[in-house]
Design a protein that fits this description.
Elements (H helix, E strand, L loop, with lengths): L3 H6 L3 H32 L7 H54 L2 E3 L5 E3 L6 H9 L1 H39 L21 H17 L5 H14 L3 H30 L4 H18 L6 H14 L2 E2 L12 E2 H9 L7 H19 L16 H4 L6 H9 L3 H8 L6 H8 L5 E6 L9 E5 L6 H12 L14 H16 L11 H10 L1 H9 L14 E5 L2 E5 L2 H11 L3 H20 L7 H27 L5 H17 L18 H19 L5 H6 L1 H17 L7 H25 L4
Helix pairs in contact: 2-3, 3-5, 5-6, 6-7, 6-8, 7-9, 8-9, 8-10, 8-11, 11-14, 12-14, 14-17, 15-17, 16-18, 17-18, 17-19, 18-21, 19-21, 19-22, 20-23, 21-23, 22-23, 22-24, 23-27, 23-28, 24-25, 25-27, 27-28
């Protein structure tokens, strides 16, 4: 085991000197081969060499000649291994030296043995006093020392791991792997000059013992070391997976899952770390979609992907078996950095497996299992592999956009319209009077569409999923995906009751498109003022791509979001912010028409949002007070975050709607929304909805005040009345699209 001192002081040039020596050995062996071929082996090939002993001699001479050739292969491989080792050790030593330099720069001392301590010699008298008497200072120093020590120790550990790899390679390179070459313990004619390939073969041997249940704790530690140090190396990764094959890779992953989650939870973190290394190995090996390895491994995965595998303890049903693609995606969830083409190809192959299964006439899902796989304890298993791979894909928004773009393929339509999402048993259908359990009836799992929702969010916003997004800019493919999503949900009558798993992602997405939804409800621009039921269009200008769909379709999807009051509250808050932004951008010298148009348009948009909120009062599914409280919390969250829209900076003090004004307005608005929710859910109350009217009133008065007009001046009242009139227009129009019986 190399020490810190040895790593920094060892003369690594001896490795390249040894490599040069072994190159010389290979040349000498070549010279000897030439002489042997000419002076010995050549004799047996002449016409004068005949008889029974000739045949025996020929065989021995041929074996010896072959040994000369194999010896050269072995010598060249040894030379290459020495150079490979030199490269690795030089690189690792530089990292250790860099870590030491960084530690010293951070006021640490590093001894000749690699022990880190705080360099008190550089402290002032005041600092020394503080260090002696201030417990917080002492604790910060202790943490800093521990952190730098950990970094130094890890660098030393990396060299130790590399040293073990070199040892494995040198032991294997001199081993005769051909038992049929006429020699026992001869030279290795299959010798290779790549340390990582030998480590991959070692990992393959251990993996086979793991899958067979014959691995020792030493095996697990060694496999962990091999994957930790080499999973990012292409030669190692492809060699290992090529040796295991797709089936062997999945069996290894299943074995590790069984150990981590059921059989040996005590060492669970170790098994999961091995899974992480195996997933990284998979990501590294599949970086080049055009390589022979990629094509062969993908074809192998197609076969293994629908095969059945046992995973100990996974299901409550004793004979339950999982499909290969479920195991594959479970493994992939431990890694990252997958090539986009590999993700798309995997998703395509999983979809093909689904459609092929359905084509056989069954109405069940190929992934159907007699258990549930969601929540903290069970959600780690990718029982829906297509949804799982989409979740992984969501970490790469560009790839997600490519995969879901309806101009490229029909994947989005399949996921929204054609796919069977039922993957777990809901109950068993027993015939009337039957005494035995009938056929299983499948239903959606608890985390259904989690991956699809994340991929859809990434694809339409161009950003990582899981939170609310600033407004634009977007690309045409991003906007096109949202347009297609809204239209498909509406046409399939799934808009007002959004599919489970899509409510929050759609809220996140629509926040990013607030300028477009605002203009749709404002009914002013010709590109947005389209037929209520229009599929709309996507176009681009200097601000990026824009989206318009029929008012009725957009409102229906937003009503679906409103089933989650907090999510809808955030949409409402984003519209409030954008309305402030619109009014702030009105030029200081604007005429009456410009001012009135902006206020009317903004009031219509706010009215449309309140039309959606109004529909909640009619719906008896909701406890109105709680809905209002959650809705208000969503507004507060939206207004409490960084502004989603760029504040105006060129109007000077005139036109500045301060955050304080927004906060006061939001506070008063929320009080009215909550009080309103406490009223009886009568038709008259739903038609009146005074809180929204007051929102417009307070907004316009605050804006007028920022422009130097009294909040009760005739000038201000004129615009308040104009806004309130069109607020009612926007609200009633939206409510009419949602509830024709009002």
């Amino acid at each position: 085991m190399p020490t810190y001192h040895e790593i920094l002081t060892t003369d690594l040039s001896t490795l390249t000197a040894a490599a040069d020596h072994w190159d010389d050995v290979a040349e000498d062996l070549h010279t000897q081969e030439t002489a042997y071929r000419r002076d010995v082996h050549g004799i047996s090939m002449g016409p004068s060499w005949q008889g029974l002993y000739t045949t025996v001699a020929d065989e021995h001479f041929a074996v010896t000649l072959k040994e000369f050739q194999k010896a050269q292969t072995e010598a060249k491989a040894i030379a290459a291994l020495f150079r490979d080792a030199h490269t690795q050790f030089v690189d690792l030593r530089k990292k250790l030296e860099s870590a030491r330099q960084d530690a010293v720069a951070a006021k640490m001392k590093v001894s000749d043995q690699g022990v880190v301590s705080y360099d008190t010699g550089k402290l002032t008298d005041g600092d020394r006093q503080a260090l002696a008497h201030d417990p917080d200072y002492q604790e910060s120093v202790r943490k800093a020392v521990a952190s730098w020590q950990a970094r130094i120790d890890q660098c030393v550990k990396d060299v130790e791991d590399a040293d073990k790899g070199v040892e494995i390679a040198f032991q294997a390179v001199v081993t005769d792997s051909d038992m049929g070459d006429g020699t026992i313990g001869g030279f290795n004619g299959r010798a290779q000059g790549d340390i990582e390939k030998y480590e991959a073969h070692e990992a393959e041997d251990i993996a086979e013992r793991v899958s067979a249940g014959e691995a020792s704790q030493h095996d697990y530690r060694e496999l962990q070391r091999l994957l930790h140090g080499n999973s990012g190396d292409k030669a190692f990764s492809q060699t290992l997976l090529d040796g295991l094959g797709a089936r062997g890779t999945l069996q290894l992953s299943n074995s590790l899952d069984s150990l981590a989650h059921y059989d040996d939870k005590q060492h669970g973190s170790q098994y999961l770390d091995i899974q992480k290394g195996l997933a990284t190995t998979l990501a590294t090996a599949t970086k080049d979609p055009h390589s022979d390895f990629y094509q062969g491994f993908r074809a192998d995965l197609r076969k293994a992907g629908t095969e059945r595998f046992e995973v100990d303890g996974l299901g409550s049903v004793p004979d339950e078996k999982v499909r290969g693609y479920q195991s594959l995606v479970t493994l992939m969830q431990h890694g990252h950095g997958y090539d986009g083409q590999f993700l798309k190809d995997t998703a395509d192959d999983i979809r093909h497996a689904e459609e092929s299964y359905t084509a056989q006439g069954t109405t069940e899902s190929v992934w159907g299992l007699r258990d549930r796989f969601s929540g903290e304890d069970r959600g780690w298993f990718a029982n829906d592999p297509l949804d799982g791979v989409l979740g992984i894909m969501s970490h790469d928004p560009e790839v997600s956009t490519e995969y879901l773009d309806p101009d490229r393929n029909d994947n989005l339509r399949y996921l929204l319209h054609g796919r069977n999402w039922d993957t777990v048993v809901d109950h068993y259908a027993t015939p009337p009077g039957g005494t035995t359990v009938g056929i299983p009836v499948l239903a959606e799992d608890g985390d259904v569409r989690k991956g699809f929702g994340a991929a859809l969010e990434a694809a339409t916003t161009g950003e990582a999923p899981g939170g609310y997004h600033a407004a634009g800019p977007h690309t045409e493919p991003q906007a096109r995906i949202l347009q297609h999503t809204i239209n498909t949900l509406y046409t399939d009558k799934h808009a007002q009751e959004l599919p489970k798993g899509l409510v929050t992602p759609m809220a996140h997405i629509l926040t990013s498109y607030t300028p477009d939804t605002h203009e749709t409800y404002a009914e002013s621009s010709s590109k947005y003022d389209i037929d209520w039921d229009s599929e709309g269009s996507v176009w681009s200008d200097k601000d990026g791509a824009h989206l318009a769909v029929g008012h009725q379709r957009l409102a229906a999807v937003m009503r679906g979001v409103a089933n989650d009051p907090e999510a809808f509250g955030h949409l409402y808050g984003a519209e409030q912010q954008y309305t402030h932004h619109v009014l702030e951008t009105i030029p200081a010298d604007a005429g009456d028409k410009t001012i009135r148009d902006r206020i009317v348009e903004s009031s219509r948009a706010m009215g449309a949002y309140d039309g959606i909120r109004s529909d909640i009062i009619y719906d008896e599914r909701f406890e109105k007070t709680q809905w209002a409280a959650d809705f208000n919390h969503g507004i507060g969250t939206a207004l409490g975050t960084a502004l989603l829209f760029n504040p105006v900076k060129d109007l000077g003090p005139v036109g500045d709607l301060t955050n304080k004004a927004i906060d006061v307005w939001a506070y008063e608005s929320n009080k009215e929304h909550t009080a309103e929710a406490n009223l009886a859910a009568t038709e008259q109350n739903a038609k009146t909805y005074d809180a929204g009217q007051h929102d417009v009133e307070k907004l316009v008065r605050a804006w007028a005040d920022s422009r130097g007009h009294g909040i009760d001046s005739d000038w201000t009242k004129y615009y308040v009345h104009a806004g309130q009139n069109d607020y009612e227009h926007g609200r009633d129009r939206t409510l009419s699209t949602l509830r024709a019986d009002r």
